[in-house]
Every structure is written in C-alpha cells, then in structure tokens.
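User: I'm new to structure prediction. If I give you an amino acid sequence, what do you actually give back? Let's try with this one:
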Amino acid sequence: MRYEIRGPLARRAYEMESKGLEVLHLNVGNPGAFGLHAPQSMREAIVRNLKASDPYGPQTGIFPAREAVAIQFQERGLKDTRFHQVMIGNGVSELVDLSLRALLEPGDEVLIPAPDYPLWTAAVTLNGGRAVHYQCTAENRFMPDPDAIERQITPRTRALVVINPNNPTGAVYSRALLERLAGLAEKHNLVLFSDEIYDRIVYDDAEFVPMATLDADCLCVSFGGLSKVYRACGWRVGWMVFTGALERAEDYRLAVEKLAALRLSSNVPTQWAVQTALGGYQSIDALVQPGGRLHESRQAVIDAVERSDCLDLVTPQGAMYAFPSVQLPEVARGESWDFDDHRFAEQLLEREQILIVPGTSFNINSKLHFRITLLPEASRLRNALDAIDRFLLEDFE
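Assistant: Good question. You get back a string of structure tokens that encode the predicted 3D arrangement of the chain. For your 397 residues, that looks like this:
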C-alpha cells in the first residue's frame, strides 16, 4: 500500500519545521493551508444547525444534504435522480473504501489509471482485490487508451475507475473519451466508479462532463464532496451517487448502506453545509478564471517550466496539481545518468526546504515525474520552480 503524500518525506518536513526551518509544502492539495477557505455562508449553515447535530444522523446522511446533491444531478440532466441514490460519508476516501468493500471478493480485479490517486489502489488491495493499472502516459497527454484498457479486462474484472478531472496529472477527459470508457463498462458489465471531486476546477476551454450523464447501461457511482471545490478539507464531507442500472444493482447499494451503518453515521454538523454549498453563487469560478488565484498559480508553473532547462510539463487542464517530468540536458547527465525521483525529492527537501511527491508514489514505473500543488500564490510557485531548476542543474547528486 502506498500513500507517500503523507509518508516519510512529510514526516521529515515536520521534523525540520520543529527545528525552526520553513518548508514549502507542495505535497498536499489542502486549500485552507494556503489561505483558501470555505465560504462564510457554509460556516453559518453549520452554526445555525448545531442544535440539531447532537444525535447520530442516518447512516446514509441527512436529508437536506442528500437532496441537494440529487438536485445538482437533476440540473446536470439526470432528471430522475432522487435523494435515496445519494450517500454522504466522511469525505470521499471513506466512501471509496465502503464501495469497494461491498463489491470485491478475494482476487477480484479493478481497473485503475496509472498514475492514480493512490487511495484507489490501496483500497482495492486492502479489501482483497487486485489493482490492474491502465497506462495514461505523458506522451498521450495522460489520456487513457480505451482499446488498451479492454485488452486488460478478464472474467475477474469487476469495476473501472475513472478520475476526471485527474489527480495527479490535471488531465480533463473529453466527452468522446468518456463515452468510450462508459461503453467498456456497459459491454463488460463493470461498475463504473467516477471520481469527480474536482468537478468545477477546470481551466481555459476545458469542459467537465459528468460520467453519469452518458446514459451507459451499467451502474455508475459518482464521487464528489466539499474538500476541494469548496475548500473544506477538514470538514470531511463527501458523497457518492448511484445512477444507471439501479435495479440490477440494488443488492449492492444496500450492501454499501449496511457497511455505512456499522460506523453509525458520518460527521453530522458539517453535512448542514452541503445544501448551502451547492446552491447559489459558486465562488470557485472566480478562482479558476483568468486573474483568479488558481488560474494565475497554474500559469506561473507553466511559465516557469517553459523557462526551465530541466523540466517538461503536460499543461494541466483541471484539478489543483501539476505533474512535471525531469528532462536534464545531455551536458548535465553524465555517462551513468539514472534519475531517481525519491532521491531527488529527499535532497530537494533537505537542501531547498521544498516538499514534493515523487511520481512513482502514484503507481507508475517512470521515475522522471513529481507532483506539486497549485495552491500557493503565483510568486511562491514561480520561485519554487526556479529553485528546483537550479537545484537540478547545480546541486542534485
């Protein structure tokens, strides 16, 4: 199991900070840590409903939150979506675990993108399944190849995971590509897990297409939450929505609900913010448009990589990360050049006090990539990328 986003490098960073050093944490997509906070109206919704939050809530979530998510899906074109198709959890992470635990028998296979958000691979493994990674390479702009995915499907394959907009690469999938992926799930009777936690974080001309709107005759489970778009990571509110082949999948949905009942209920106070969050003005839009904080930080990374002698980048079209690769010029490589992303991340932290995530942490074989968050201000990211470039040329051993 891998989760190096909060692994040994992060522990070392905290040790350094305890000794008075200042570390730039580019490892975690944690908006509040960079001054991007949840809207005040969401806090007010929690406060006004605190008296109703003392008892356990329903294991599937309180009605206003579930209804608000259902209405969002109705507005996206899924007119028949009802609250009973929605389940609220302690963040998407908990719901991913519950949904896989209810689905998998030992040895069952789940198709997961590589690079992936490592929770998916870990949750499959911890629940007795086998993660089968389909490749999304930089040469293909981190887009999957549906034909290659189909060749990986076996009689043991139970589900296909799609992460769109993508973490860690920032790729945003086209409608045509999503339709082909949905078609694979329909053809082979797979559960289609669509991780859409960054659904409103897209840049320039990129368009987010909800997987559930593609009308495939399979079960689609879509995941979203308050953590990223609404900058409320610590509130731990996520949801999943069951759409598509609901009648065939009713036993499965009830099995997930039974597992949810074992933990009684998810965090009740912050569920009251869901209805307020999804209705009305969407403050994330201003952040991702030209002139907005996230858009400008992303542009700073793009510009810094263009200036760099050592870095390359597939421009992120969504989410809040960039996934650069190291491409040292030949004069700097030496005869025995063999780049190691973990050694690079360790030395960068010790010498420059910059914390990144090695690319192999996301279940890929290439050691040339690393992930950084786009959350800091543009000037801090510009300085960090310039420092990384100098470090690669002058100091990295």
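You can read the tokens as a compact description of the fold. Here is one thing that stands out. The longest helix spans residues 378-394.
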